[in-house]
Structure formats: C-alpha cells, structure tokens
Design a protein that fits this description.
Elements (H helix, E strand, L loop, with lengths): L1 H15 L2 H34 L3 H12 L54 H12 L5
Length: about 140
C-alpha cells in the first residue's frame, strides 16, 4: 500500500506542479531585466549628452546646427546643393521641382477600383463620414 501511495503522490506532484509556468515567468523576468538594463544605458547616455550641452555656447551651437535657429537680429540663409549645371537637383525632395507628368501616362497613376464595391445605405454613409470628421476628438 505504501509504494502505491508514494507513486500516486509522485504522479500528483508532477502533474500539478506548475513547472512550465515557472519557466515562462523566469524567461519573462530575464527579458524585463534586459530591457531595464538597456533603458538604464540609454539614460546614462542621455545624461552625458545633457551635461555636454549644459553650457550656453553648446546649446546655441546645437540650436544652429540641428534646428536652424538663429539669435534675434540674425537671418538664416540656406544654400541648396545643385547638380553643377545651374539647375536644382531632382533629389532635393521638393515635388514642385519634379517634371510634369505627360497626359498619356496618367492611366498608370490612377488606381484600379472595383465598380462592384458594396453599397451602403445613406444613413450608414452619413455616420461613417461624421465619425471621420470627428476623428480629431480621439
């Protein structure tokens, strides 16, 4: 009888012991510890950066270089790079400087929309337009 009770107790212990749950929790703790260490490292780097721009001259230099700010009474002039022929390069990203699209190639710009779209009742269309209009409230 005693060996049967020991086997039953061992089976119950193995069956109900939350070994996998403990293993998952430990892996989550390890991942969280890694994230905390990375955030502490970022915090230390940001503190060093804050100390390096703590002076007024460093803050002024940073404002000029990264944010194109000038002191009162000064004016900012930016010279854009060209391609050497006197014309502005196409890589500037300004869409106003892109060449015009030929009317014959307009069909490639139009998206193909299916005319068999689902029809909504006027009340559903009204409410969907109303929700899109009031989306800024979120």
């Amino acid at each position: 009888m005693m060996p049967l009770a020991l086997v039953t107790a061992a089976v119950m212990l193995v069956g109900w012991f939350p070994l996998t749950a403990l293993w998952h929790q430990q892996s989550q703790l390890d991942a969280t510890t890694t994230q905390i260490a990375a955030i502490k490292h970022q915090q230390a780097a940001l503190l060093l950066q804050a100390q390096s721009i703590d002076t007024k001259s460093a803050a002024t230099l940073l404002a000029r270089e990264q944010y194109q700010l000038v002191t009162p009474g000064q004016s900012l002039i930016q010279v854009l790079p060209g391609d050497g022929s006197g014309q502005v390069s196409q890589s500037t990203g300004d869409p106003g400087l892109q060449p015009l699209v030929a009317p014959s190639s307009i069909s490639t710009l139009v998206t193909n929309q299916s005319p068999t779209g689902s029809r909504h009742s006027p009340s559903k269309a009204f409410f969907s337009r109303l929700l899109r209009t009031l989306e800024f409230w979120r």
